[in-house]
Amino acid sequence: MTVQRKLPQFLLLICVLLTMLIAAMSRAQESLRKVVSRAAPSYPELARKMHLSGKVKIEVEVNPAGAVISARMVGGNPVFEAAAIQAVKQWKFEAAPTSTKGVITLEFADQ
């Protein structure tokens, strides 16, 4: 196969990859919805006794009406997991045409 034949195939592959990248970026931006109301997490007693602080990342799925339908920890200290998930499940987001997913970061400071 000559270089002239390979070049169109290579350009087609690049176009397909760029299209996939743009679609993925669009989906990522769709998952960012404005928070309408939020509940603050309670500071766990164990964390208080241990003087712990830190950030927790929670992946949430939000239904079209804006309610959180699932939440799971994807990063952070497990001591804060239950409090973070309990708080985030009470959050409300702006309405959207479809369900979306995103990651929320909550910060816990030593109290």
| Low-confidence runs | 15-30
Major sheet characteristics: 3 strands, antiparallel
Percentage of β-strand residues:
25-35%
Q: What would you call the shape?
A: flat
Determine the fraction of residues in helical runs and give it as a percent range: 25-40%
Domain tally:
2
Spatial separation of the terminal alpha carbons:
69 Å
CATH superfamily of the largest domain: TonB
Mean pLDDT: 81
Helix run count: 3
| Number of separate strands | 5
CATH topology title of the largest domain: TolA/TonB C-terminal domain
Concise summary:
38% of the residues lie in helices and 29% in strands.
Account of the protein in words:
Helices cover 38% and strands 29% of the residues. The protein is an alpha+beta fold and 111 residues long. It has two domains: 1-30; 33-108, TolA/TonB C-terminal domain (2-Layer Sandwich). The model is unreliable at 15-30 (pLDDT under 50).
Features:
TolA/TonB C-terminal domain, two-stranded antiparallel ribbon, 3 helices, 3-stranded antiparallel beta sheet, 29% strand, 2 domains, alpha+beta, 111 residues
Helices, strands, pairings?
Blueprint: H1 3-30, E1 35-37, H2 45-50, E2 54-62, E3 68-76, H3 81-88, E4 92-93, E5 100-108
Antiparallel strand pairs: 1-4, 2-3, 2-5
